[in-house]
Amino acid sequence: MKRTMPHVPTRPSSLARRKPRTRPEIAAELVRLEYERDRIERDLGMINQRRLKAERQLDVLAARVRLLNQMLQAADDRAAHSS
User: Fold this and answer.
1) What is the pTM of this model?
2) How far is CA 5 from the centre of its chain?
3) Which SS3 state, helix, strand or coil, does residue 41 take?
4) Residue 57: in which H helix or E strand, if any?
5) Which of 6, 26, 62, 78 could share a disulfide with 20, CB 3.0–4.6 Å?
């Protein structure tokens, strides 16, 4: 059974909030944005790994389909020649 993805709470957009005015506010906002950037880059990396794995699985399945089609065609050819 497929597991559901855990809910990741999202913060309001920094654009909707007031602009930081003091140096500590600016530093805190910078840290928050860098953390969010790193999280998104990590998520994209995981998605890319999953995509590559899925592509490999798709290639394996396509090869098996081709093989089974060839076997089915060979069986049909033998049946046509023996009758």
Assistant:
1) 0.55
2) 13
3) helix
4) helix 23-82
5) 26
More confident residue, 42 or 82: 42
Average pLDDT in the chain: 88
Q: What are phi and psi of 11, to 5 degrees?
A: -90, 155
Q: What is the pLDDT of residues 6-30, one digit of tens each?
A: 776 676 665 566 787 899 999 999 9
DSSP 56: H
Q: Which residues contact 64 (CB under 8 A, 6 or more apart)?
A: none
CB proximity list for 26: less than 8 A, separation 6 or greater = 20
Nearest to 47 by CA among 12, 5, 11: 5
